[in-house]
Amino acid sequence: MTAASTRGSEGGVSVEIACVVGARPNFMKMAPVFEALRSYPWLRPTLVHTGQHYDEAMSRVFFDELGMPAPDVNLEVGSATHAVQTARILERFDAWLEEARPGLVLVAGDVNSTVACALAAAKRTIPVGHVESGLRSRDRTMPEELNRIVTDVLADFLFAPSADAVENLAAEGIDRAKIHFVGNSMIDSLRRHLAAARARRTHDRFGLDPRGYAVVTLHRPSNVDDPESLERILDALRSLAARLPVVFPAHPRTAARLAGPGDPSIAGVTVCEPLGYLDFLGLMEASRLVVTDSGGIQEETTALGVPCLTLRDNTERPITVSEGTNRLIGSDPAAIAPAAETVLAMPPPAPRAPALWDGHAGGRIAAILAAALQPRPGLPAPEEDSCRATI
């Protein structure tokens, strides 16, 4: 396998790595990797934003707070159905690949940008790396599950966040030489920015005491698209709010289905706009309980030592249950109240750190890629436009 290389600004050989982000979780997963890649003189990471998360203001907040530079490329695909959005990303990213010819494409997570960019690269025989590889929910009704499976089949470097992810990949017949157990780069971002997030004291804005409130996030179609299902969830949240205050930063998908903060159907629940990374991390860290259907929040609450109730029948992150603070309560909203009572009757748990969730996953990923992409001594000097560095 080979990777295209180009002359660096000082005449040396550099390999361009296209680091793809598209939705908010990608930013937290990619930021530590991107930073670590920049420390290798023969690597040239380029930040490609597909624009899948199309709120410019919120995207800018995430880039600024995570210390990421402005994207080198923005494909501006915007919102659409899964099929249309994936097709737009595939078309626009492929056009960029034809011109840029990077040596490797690095994708993260399980969103439409992940699978579309991996597919475009693979069709052009450009090596693909996948950050957060090997997670499986075993539920193919979830679009994210299909994205994970396809991306892992296409990838040449599979960076697994946990031991169960490694075994999932091996069971699917992936060559173990391609699989690298590196830890969780999202937790790198959390550890790096936690002090700054605490200093925000987000809970003060809502008049709340630390460990005296619950945080809710919901966005999956199975929970919020059906009006009857959403109403049952709101009933459960009203019951929870009778026990302790509830803050509900509403994902745009969810907010579109709510009448608004003054709607009596959500009385007792403080609904607010989506928060930036630091504000939300600070709000979550000081909470007593989180109710969610998000994957990444299951991991973050584990690292923070905050009890998490996941309103889903399955999870692609079982380590957050076996070694963390997460409880999978199923898809029936009626389970929220009794599960919350159980949690609130117990002392708050301590933060948990599964293997290699130590803040250095990004560095491990960069080291693996740097070793694989380093030009071998004695290779002929590259031509002006490009050369090949052997992987």
Structural class: alpha/beta
CATH class of the largest domain: Alpha Beta
Low-confidence stretches: 7-11, 378-391
Global outline = globular
Strand content: 15-25%
CATH-derived topology of the largest domain: Rossmann fold
Q: From the alpha-carbon coordinates, what is the Rg to the nearest angstrom? A: 21 Å
Classified in CATH, the superfamily of the largest domain is Glycogen Phosphorylase B
Report the total helices. Answer: 16
Q: What is the total number of structural domains?
A: 2
State the CATH architecture of the largest domain. Answer: 3-Layer(aba) Sandwich
Distance between the termini: 6 Å
Q: Indicate the percent of residues in helices.
A: 40-55%
Q: Tell me the major beta sheet.
A: 9 strands, mixed
